[in-house]
């Protein structure tokens, strides 16, 4: 299931070297700081690079692969990468497998102002949810999928009357980090129990923000939140970690659905 080789994942605290310094597109309200002003050329430079690991190229490549897995079908789902003080975000309503770097929005992390905004596209409704992972958990990448198995797992939990997905004793659980901080370094072990909180869906994606933030606070070790009848948000310190976790979780959800069909318990006795 590996699809992109990520040799040099970027840290959210590094910045892209081949674009100009703090810049802002002229089509947007003037920034409080003159140093943030930029030309249209500067805004285009934000998404122009031959480096396959540049966030603008990576988001397009990842979404193309995610489409083949059924994670971003029918323009659903999305991906965002934090690169230093810049946030790269896939737009709303775009066929994710056909997306180009020119379609991406770029936001200044500190001011939340768009440095680049394609005039014919809408910003992603996932933006406040991606920002929650960046601000509350220091994430460098956040992936949102509409994976069928993630949705099915939330339906099975709903039927069982629980708002937490729990599973134990599967090898792939080792792909999920224990938590945050020095004492929680490393990944879960084979005998550890994986727990992912589930929040209720809302009519509009952006309205999930408050409950997603509350789930992150309530579950301080979690790197993902399931959304009932909708999908999942998964984040990591960088692209490689977010992608590894998203793949591992989806594999575990597929197994969980099959185990349920076979009458096998998620927590062995
Ligand atoms: Zn969604």
TrEMBL record:
Binds 1 zinc ion per subunit. Keywords: Amino-acid biosynthesis, Cytoplasm, Lyase, Metal-binding, Methionine biosynthesis, Zinc. Its EC number is 4.2.1.109. One of its GO terms (cellular component) is cytoplasm. The active site is at residue 171. It catalyses: 5-(methylsulfanyl)-D-ribulose 1-phosphate = 5-methylsulfanyl-2,3-dioxopentyl phosphate + H2O. PANTHER family: METHYLTHIORIBULOSE-1-PHOSPHATE DEHYDRATASE. This is Methylthioribulose-1-phosphate dehydratase. It comes from Aureobasidium subglaciale (strain EXF-2481) (Aureobasidium pullulans var. subglaciale). The gene is MDE1.
């Amino acid at each position: 299931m590996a699809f992109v080789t990520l040799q040099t994942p970027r840290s959210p605290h590094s910045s892209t070297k081949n674009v100009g310094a703090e810049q802002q597109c002229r089509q947007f309200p003037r920034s409080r700081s003159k140093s943030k002003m930029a030309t249209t050329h500067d805004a285009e430079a934000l998404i122009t690079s031959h480096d396959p690991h540049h966030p603008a190229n990576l988001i397009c490549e990842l979404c193309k692969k995610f489409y083949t897995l059924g994670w971003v079908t029918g323009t659903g789902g999305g991906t965002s990468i934090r690169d230093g003080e810049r946030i790269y975000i896939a737009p709303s309503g775009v066929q994710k497998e056909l997306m180009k770097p020119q379609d991406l929005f770029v936001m200044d992390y500190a001011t939340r102002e768009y440095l680049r905004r394609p005039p014919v596209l809408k910003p992603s409704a996932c933006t406040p949810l991606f920002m929650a992972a960046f601000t509350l958990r220091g994430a460098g990448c956040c992936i949102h999928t509409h994976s069928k198995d993630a949705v099915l797992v939330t339906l099975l939990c709903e039927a069982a009357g629980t708002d937490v997905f729990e599973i134990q004793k599967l090898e792939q659980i080792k792909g999920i980090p224990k938590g945050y901080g020095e004492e929680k370094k490393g990944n879960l072990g084979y005998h550890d129990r994986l727990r992912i909180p589930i929040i209720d869906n809302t009519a509009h994606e952006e309205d999930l923000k408050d409950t997603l933030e509350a789930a992150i606070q309530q579950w301080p070790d979690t790197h993902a939140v399931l959304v009932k009848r909708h999908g999942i948000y998964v984040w990591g310190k960088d692209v490689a970690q977010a992608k590894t976790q998203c793949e591992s979780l989806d594999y575990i959800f597929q197994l969980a659905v099959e185990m349920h069909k076979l009458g096998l318990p998620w927590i062995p006795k």
